[in-house]
Amino acid sequence: MVNYSAAALDQTFRALSDPTRRAMLARLAAEPDASVAELARPFRMSKPAISKHLKVLERAGLVAEEEEPGARVQSDAELRDYVRARAWGHHAAGTCPIGPRERGGVLTSDFRVHGTRGLRVVDASVFPRIPGFFPVSAIYMVAEKAADDILAQAGR
Ligand SMILES: Cc1cc2nc3c(=O)[nH]c(=O)nc-3n(C[C@H](O)[C@H](O)[C@H](O)COP(=O)(O)OP(=O)(O)OC[C@H]3O[C@@H](n4cnc5c(N)ncnc54)[C@H](O)[C@@H]3O)c2cc1C
Q: Which of 123, 126, 127, 142 to mutate to test the pocket of ligand 1 (most atoms within 8 A of CB)?
């Protein structure tokens, strides 16, 4: 038995009925990474007009556009920056980060809360950046440093 949706077939035939869209599909089959500007070049059409044709093809499920990181992130350096800026673990961290107050920091580098006396924070919240996907070993290290700082200052 053949399963098909009449609406989906309508969309497909509508998308393929246009010679420009058929030519775009043929081009994309040969060059899947062609940009909108490159697709527009052989036709006497603006980029917005080509984008509308692409939308028709997308709605019919004939082409798909990469959503993340998207067409603007291409080089190795751009990809590295993109991953660095967005990757995060599922363990919340960094809600009281060490750093200068004017840049959103909450703690000094010896874990004191800015503007207070006798109050420190030592836990996963101190990191200015999330320390990788599994933060526990970084938390142990931070706790060791905090213990050293507290003992050293207590001895003064
Ligand atoms: C199910 C699970 C699995 C995880 N697996 C991993 C893993 O495999 N690897 C990894 O790196 N990380 C893992 N994590 C994350 C890691 O456990 C946490 O990021 C880390 O424990 C946070 O350390 P913390 O010192 O900030 O807080 P916590 O470890 O939560 O310590 C807070 C402490 O404060 C105590 N406390 C709370 N309120 C009070 C109060 N009012 N008075 C006194 N004490 C109080 C709590 O009892 C607790 O002991 C996991 C977390 C969970 C929940």
A: 123
